[in-house]
User: Fold this.
Amino acid sequence: MSMIYKSTRDDSVKVTASQAILKGLAPDGGLFVPESIPELDKSLEELSAMDYKGVAYEVMKLMLDDFTEEELKHCVNSAYDSKFDTDEIAPLVKADGAYYLELFHGKTIAFKDMALSILPHLLITSAKKNNVKNDIVILTATSGDTGKAALAGFADVKGTKIIVFYPKNGVSPIQEKQMITQKGDNTYVVGIHGNFDDAQTGVKNIFSDKALEKEMDAAGFQFSSANSINIGRLCPQIVYYVYAYTRLLANGEIKKGEKINVVVPTGNFGNILAAFYAKNMGLPINKLICASNENKVLFDFFKTGEYDRNREFVLTTSPSMDILVSSNLERLIYMIAGNSADKNAQLMNQLKTAGKYTITDDMREKLSDFYGNFASEEEDAATIKKLYEDTGYVIDTHTAVAAAVYDKYKSETKDDIKTIIASTASPFKFTRSVLNAIDKKYDSMGDFELVDELSRLSNVAVPAAIEEIRTAPVLHDTVCDADKMCDTVKKILGI
Assistant:
């Protein structure tokens, strides 16, 4: 029997994995979660003998069990190929006592590539399995990285269109250039006057608009999502934590069954949730260390049990984490509420109406796997500078948040077990912030002068993703107000 996926807000909503991927979001606004998290059925020793593709298949077959072996292996092999600039796909680099899991070797040099390289293949396969006749419209909000990775994944994929909304002044210059120069007859990029949370809320509202759904169907379209609210995005993220552990095992860095810590710079919570799922599948993880920037709503949540979005929104040098509504946290809330859709729905309604909710003491006790902390802008910059000066290794602003928080964790707990830090983006995406952290003298340089300087300093070749946008023409210049997103979608689709 195929695994059942349920809505976090309504127990009666039950679908298969492929249906959950197609829908993206449940009709009630909830997120799809597996009825139970399966255990790994291969030993970690067996997995350590496999390459990334092998591990990906073994992990995802458990979560996406209505895919045939042939279907899933086709998706895996199509995703993790020459688009990545290393055969390892996600290499580990040891620096300053931690292992940096480099998740930025894909086409758009950010961790989102790890999932968004495979999602189009999962989606198209799901559409065929479920006899979908409509064109699929991928509707996505981005805080910087998801947008480009999704655009690159879906560009010119037959039977799809992709519309990406991003905060016009809330992403790095490189991130914006990557998106607005995107080729593909089926790609659309729209800047909004507002922040990421406005974009994400707008997308969710469009998804739940029943009248629009009918209009779309009549015109031969249906929505799906490339955000991490889509379970087809989350499942591939589980893979790289399992793979990282098996690399440590294969390289003799850890012994069989030895526990590790995982540190994740976290905005919408999906990336660290994937590590939590990996732990529940049997990966020996001790602590899941949730690192926030100055938008520290998650740190406050883990500290107090209250999630409160009613606060000043801070624009930081780690913009992909500038988020006050962590969508994927809902999946964790559902689990610690005893898989109670009713309890979760109540809390999510409180978040919608009052902007905050408080979990029970019983629920808080179930968060013992997590540790939360945050890094200020000053701490972020100091971490980049120190790591570079001590080791020559250059990290981006998001990874630096994780490294700074890891230092705080070690100082507080004296825990010195082996630790993986999720390195979520190439420093080449945030050249100005990274180089300013190392030395303020670089601030007078132009964006692409900075790129070349970073290449010289780090002794790393400029990634192809950056080279190709040096002279690329702007192809997308649409901007709208946050309350006009639905109208913009209809205009794009001609309905």
